[in-house]
Amino acid sequence: MLKIENLSKSYGRGKRKKNVLHDVNLTVGEEEIVGIVGESGSGKSTLSRLIMRLESADEGTVSFATVDNFYASCQIVFQNASAAMNPSWTVRDILKEPLRKMKGDRDAHIREMLEKVSLEEKHLDRRPSELSGGERQRVNLLRSILVEPKLLVCDEIVSNLDRLIQKEIVELIQRLNRETGMAILFISHDLDVVEHLCNRVYVMKSGRIVEEGVKRDGRFSFEHPYSLLLFE
Ligand SMILES: Nc1ncnc2c1ncn2[C@@H]1O[C@H](COP(=O)(O)OP(=O)(O)OP(=O)(O)O)[C@@H](O)[C@H]1O
User: Fold this and answer.
1) pLDDT per residue over 31-58, tens digit each?
2) Which has the least CB within 10 A, 4, 112, 229, 232?
3) Number of domains within the chain
4) Structure ipTM over 0.85, yes or no
């Protein structure tokens, strides 16, 4: 459903030009959970911004199959849930915002979807500062899935959470995928989480995809020395 072909991106000009992505190719199939791993600065977030059309590529294409309304079909969740939410808004306001074009009962839709991320109606009247880290990330996640996207890009969404909350969010992602068929592109430098969650993974190094790993018997098998080093 997502196909990225020969994608390249640079920042700056002349002597300051920096090539950040080089000839990146990847796919995410319908209902698939695919990972992207790589060290800090390898270009993962730049790639997610290009997928979301927040920036444009120098070369190459990002295409979605069977998508007529891009913004309703593809959503992103970022790492820092607090920064992504207006601190003076209640959870109800935060969740209503992406539904402003929805016809029908927005409150009823929100109440229905709360259960999908294990939140309760009592959370709706709270402000982000009155939520735990895990609850904040669940609100963040819910905000992105309210429009019922076909693809959800998760950019380091469990990175700053403790292990227990990480586990809870990962289980939630699995459940959403299972129950709604939403495809997930899961960007992370946490290799354990990626190995647990994804069936395929792309390994990025210095703006290039150096290898695609496929799971066998619950583990990824790799050949490229960099991937072997990462997953050792
Ligand atoms: N707007 C920008 N202008 C200039 N350089 C940028 C810009 N955005 C990213 N870069 C550079 O592009 C490279 C890739 O950054 P990116 O944030 O995509 O990496 P990343 O793999 O997501 O890293 P991390 O895991 O630390 O978030 C880095 O060297 C970064 O400094």
Assistant:
1) 999 999 998 899 999 999 999 999 999 9
2) 232
3) 1
4) yes
